[in-house]
Each structure stands twice: as structure tokens, then as C-alpha cells.
Write a structure and sequence with these properties.
This protein is α/β, with parallel strands linked by helices. The chain has three domains: 133 residues, no CATH class; 95 residues, 3-Layer(aba) Sandwich (Rossmann fold); 199 residues, no CATH class. The strands form four sheets. It has a five-stranded parallel beta sheet with strand order 3-2-1-4-5, sandwiched between helices. It has a two-stranded antiparallel sheet with strand order 6-7. The chain is globular.
Length: 469
């Protein structure tokens, strides 16, 4: 399938940038350890450049380093780059063992060299990503598509590309048997008019979002699009499978859906996750917590009256009640019940939040005491955020699959939070999006996913989050 212009430019620029990062690493390492390389001939040095460059790009095939990740979080690029450098070290060191067995190069040289490659590779990828976003916002690299089927899946897809404009997608029209009345997206006609529409529209990509029960119609639409050489992407109707962990596999030439156990149903995965929680939380207390927590406690104590720690009962694993610890960010006399008797979530410019509390909530520093929850085992570093009991009770009947988020331990941060679904939920739809992201995490958990979310949480802390208040 022909790649789009934006995809080609994005991938090609990453190849060039990585080669540049390797050359910078060689130059810097040679400059620092020039005296140690006196016994290495110029031919051997150039050969090492070729070997490591080749190793990097060969590793990129296995790590999928050059897959278009514009629609993914940057933390995923960091994880994949680290994975790629690890493979490169294995490949290149094996070659050096046979080719340069008589040469002796210090480990410090290689440590600096590979660290430099990793750092510059990540830096260049970030620059490329931001420049790509700039071009997309200028409209130069935007890919246009036509949506066939204004279903729930279709509307969710449009909402996603509208919310994340830097993905570089724009809907140029909707085809559906029921006329739509969207101001920003024109209605092109009924599905039966597809032939005439494709004759007049040059849009190359078609997004098909129809129900599974319309299999015959879907097949006919795909055949029509193929006649006009249009690329078709199918959004399957998988709503009935949202509470299950499934994978698409092949049985002969037939695609089948396999139901799998959830990753954290496996004992070995629970052990790995618990080890990560203990390691990360212990590292936090040893490196940061021992000085930052007392400092914040003193600031809270002297900036407003009341206790330093705020304790709140929330639901944990299997709906068991846990005491969740936070730094107090609201005035002592605040209440969480509004004038109508309903639970009052924190909102923008909430008068209950203290001046210091605004800073704590904006930077998520108020959540740091929950590392104690992680140590004692009723929370995890990463997982669905635990909600106050009144918010749970209000969501059980209105949000699909809400209780399924409690089949794993709650976390200090989560996949929903790093994707912007944190803070106040102003509607049932907002809460549904949060739960959908939580279930995505539960169904696809692996240890690298946790590390990715940790990295993205740190990035968001420094970058800021408009929903943190």
C-alpha cells in the first residue's frame, strides 16, 4: 500500500536524524577518549561506524523503531528507542568480539557512546515530532478521509481526531443513510450514492464504521472503494467485546477472535508488577521522598490551618475499601457536598482549594503520599485512579463496564490520566472515556506499558495539564 506523503517524510526524517545521532556520538566519544583510541586504526574506527550504524537500523526492524507513532504518546518512542539501543549493543558487541578481539577499548568509552546515541536519538525524535505538529497545524501534512457510517464508532473516531488534531487527520465528509447536521463536516449523501461521490471526491482514504450485522453492505462498499483505488480502513463494531480481552488470530485463512485471560490474571505478571511497584516506590522514598515530603508538609502546615495529610476512603481491588492518602490541598472547613446534596468534584478556580493547593494539584504533588499506599500493597504505581465513594455510586448505573476497572489495583497515575482524562468529569461521556481508557490498560497490560505511563506522567508534570486543578 502506498504510504502517504506525511508518513514518508516523517519516517525518512527519523532515519536521517538517527544516523546523525550516531555520527555525533562517535565524534563526541572520540574527542573525549582520544588517548584511549591511539591503538585503533582509522580503518577499524570507520568499520565500527559502519557496524554500529548497520546494527542500529537492523535492530530498528525488530523493535519497530520507524513505525509511524504520531498518534502515540512520546513516552512510547522513548521506550522503543531504549529497546533498540539494547539490541544494537548486543549485535555490535558480538561483531566486535570476532573482529576486534585484540583491541582494548575502555567500557567508559562505550558507555558514553551508546548513552549519547540514545539521548540524541530521543531528542531528534522529539524535535521531528514537534515540527511535524507545526506542519500539521499549518495544514501542510494533514490527511483527509471520508467517514462512511455515522455510528457510535464513527462519532468516536471523529471526536478523537478533532480532539488530537496533531494526529494529522481531518474528515472531509460523511456518508450515511441518515443525514447529519454537523457544522464543520459536510454531509455527502447516502451509502447508495457512493459511486457518484467517489467520482467527484479526490479523498484517498475511506474510514468505514458500520455495524457487524451489515456484513454484505460492508463487502459491497469495500469492493466499490477498490474500483476507485481508495484506501479503506475498517473500524470494527466490537462494543459487545469491550469487557473481554480478545485478540485477532488466523485459523487457516479465517480470522477468528480469541478470548484470553487478562494479563494480570497470571501469577507471574502480578509478581512482576508488584516487584516494579516495590522497586519504584522504594526508589522514590530513597531519592526524592525523604526530603520532598517533609518540605511539602512544612509548607502546607504553615500556609493554612488543618492537617497535612488528607485521608479519604476509596474503592480498591475487588471493591474493597482502602484509605487513600493525599496532601491536603483544600481549606480545612471545605465540604465535598454541594448545596443540592450531591458530591462536589474539584472544579476550575474552585474556592475550596488553597493557594498552595493549586500548585500541588497542578503538578500532582498532592498525590505523592500515595506511594505509601503502594508500599503497603493496596495501590499500584500505575492503574485506574481510585474515585471517591460518592462518585463511584453515581457512575455505577450510568457508565458502561464501570465496575470492571476495580478488577486490578488502583494506581497513582494511569492511562486515562496521561491521555487527558483526569480531574473533573463534567458529564457521563467524560467518565465513559476515562473508563474506556482504564479498560484498555487492563486488557493490554505489560511492564513496558507501565514504564511508558510513568515516563508520560513525568512529561505531563513538566509540560502541564489543563485538566489538573
Amino acid at each position: 500500500m502506498k504510504l502517504s506523503r506525511s508518513h514518508l517524510l516523517y519516517v525518512q526524517s527519523k532515519y536521517i536524524a538517527d544516523l546523525f545521532a550516531i555520527l555525533i556520538a562517535f565524534g563526541l566519544s572520540y574527542f573525549v577518549f582520544n588517548a584511549d583510541l591511539i591503538n585503533v586504526s582509522r580503518t577499524d574506527f570507520l568499520l565500527s561506524v559502519v557496524i554500529i550504524s548497520s546494527g542500529w537500523f537492523i535492530a530498528g526492524v525488530f523493535s519497530k523503531l520507524y513505525v509511524d507513532r504520531r498518534t502515540k504518546k512520546f513516552s512510547e518512542e522513548i521506550i522503543v528507542s531504549f529497546y533498540n539501543i539494547a539490541i544494537t549493543i548486543l549485535v555490535s558487541s558480538s561483531c566486535f568480539f570476532y573482529l576486534f578481539s585484540t583491541k582494548s577499548i575502555s567500557n567508559a568509552y562505550w558507555a558514553l557512546f551508546f548513552s549519547t546515541i540514545f539521548l540524541f536519538s530521543v531528542l531528534f525524535k522529539y524535535i521531528i515530532r514537534k515540527y511535524t505538529h507545526y506542519l500539521i497545524y499549518k495544514g501542510e501534512l494533514t490527511e483527509h478521509f471520508i467517514l462512511i457510517g455515522y455510528t457510535r464508532a464513527g462519532t468516536d473516531f471523529i471526536d478523537m481526531v478533532e480532539r488530537f488534531k496533531y494526529y494529522g487527520y481531518s474528515c472531509s465528509g460523511i456518508i450515511d443513510d441518515q443525514q447529519t447536521n454537523l457544522k464543520s463536516i459536510p454531509y455527502l449523501g447516502k451509502i447508495s450514492q457512493l459511486n457518484e461521490i467517489l467520482k467527484t471526491k479526490s479523498t484517498q482514504e475511506i474510514i468505514l464504521a458500520l455495524s457487524n450485522v451489515e456484513a454484505g453492505l460492508v463487502k459491497k462498499i469495500i469492493e466499490t472503494c477498490e474500483q476507485y483505488n481508495r484506501k479503506v480502513r475498517l473500524i470494527p463494531d466490537l462494543e459487545k467485546y469491550t469487557n473481554a480481552n480478545i485478540e485477532v488470530a488466523d485459523l487457516g485463512i479465517m480470522p477468528v477472535l480469541n478470548y484470553k485471560k487478562l494479563p494480570l490474571d497470571r501469577l507471574e505478571n502480578r509478581v512482576i508488577k508488584r516487584f516494579f511497584d516495590l522497586f519504584f516506590s522504594t526508589l522514590f522514598f530513597l531519592l526524592i521522598g525523604f526530603w520532598l515530603l517533609p518540605l511539602l508538609a512544612i509548607l502546607i502546615k504553615y500556609s493554612s490551618k488543618g492537617p497535612v495529610i488528607f485521608r479519604q476512603v476509596r474503592w480498591g481491588l475487588s471493591n474493597e475499601q482502602i484509605v487513600c492518602y493525599k496532601f491536603r490541598s483544600m481549606a480545612m472547613e471545605s465540604t465535598d457536598i454541594d448545596e443540592t446534596g450531591n458530591y462536589a468534584q474539584a472544579r476550575l478556580n474552585d474556592p475550596r482549594v488553597t493557594r498552595l493547593g493549586k500548585f500541588l494539584r497542578k503538578t500532582s504533588l498532592d498525590e505523592l503520599p500515595q506511594f505509601w499506599n503502594v508500599l503497603i500493597g493496596n495501590m499500584s504505581v500505575i492503574g485506574p485512579r481510585p474515585h471517591p465513594v460518592p462518585l463511584n455510586m453515581a457512575s455505577i448505573e450510568t457508565v458502561e463496564n464501570y465496575m470492571l476497572r476495580h478488577i486490578v489495583k488502583p494506581g497513582i497515575s494511569g492511562w486515562a490520566q496521561v491521555n487527558g482524562f483526569r480531574g473533573e468529569t463534567k458529564s457521563v461521556a467524560d467518565m465513559q472515556k476515562r473508563v474506556d481508557h482504564d479498560l484498555y490498560y487492563i486488557h493490554r497490560w505489560n511492564i513496558f506499558f507501565d514504564i511508558q505511563i510513568v515516563l508520560q506522567t513525568i512529561i505531563n508534570i513538566f509540560r502541564g495539564d489543563q485538566n489538573a486543578y
